[in-house]
Design goal:
single chain; mainly beta; four-stranded antiparallel sheet; 7 strands; about 10% helix; elongated
């Protein structure tokens, strides 16, 4: 047969797998796809005194959300009894004053008004003797 005895010119010299081992790459791809889809329903603005973060949260009540502020990082996640899973962390360019910040959830839209912490100058001047 002609095809069975094809010359070695047509055969690859190095055999490699057609598919790369997936490992966590598929998981990472799916998480990125879900993250980018989730981010399409968000808006971020800032002024001189605060940051405003608006996120679409359909089907979640305020009792099913947990919001924590740690310095410049704001973490938002749904609790276990929530019908939808949501978990995100946002790092802001300046520290947030959690005592003055506000969160509202109306009609499936979460609005966070995060007040910027006023930087305190801790520098002291030494007297030269």
């Amino acid at each position: 047969m002609f095809f069975a005895s094809a010359p070695s010119v047509f055969q690859p010299s190095v055999r490699r797998s057609v598919y790369a081992p997936t490992g966590r790459s598929v998981d990472r791809f799916l998480q990125d796809a879900l993250f980018s889809a989730r981010q399409s329903g968000s808006a971020y603005t800032q002024d001189e005194t605060s940051f405003t973060l608006t996120l679409d949260m359909p089907g979640i009540t305020k009792e099913q959300l947990s919001i924590s502020i740690d310095g410049t990082v704001v973490r938002i996640q749904s609790k276990e009894d929530a019908p939808r899973r949501y978990r995100a962390a946002y790092e802001l360019p300046q520290e947030v004053d959690s005592a003055q910040s506000e969160a509202k959830l109306e009609h499936g839209v979460l609005t966070l008004k995060l007040v910027k912490k006023v930087p305190v100058d801790t520098a002291t001047e030494l007297t030269i003797q």
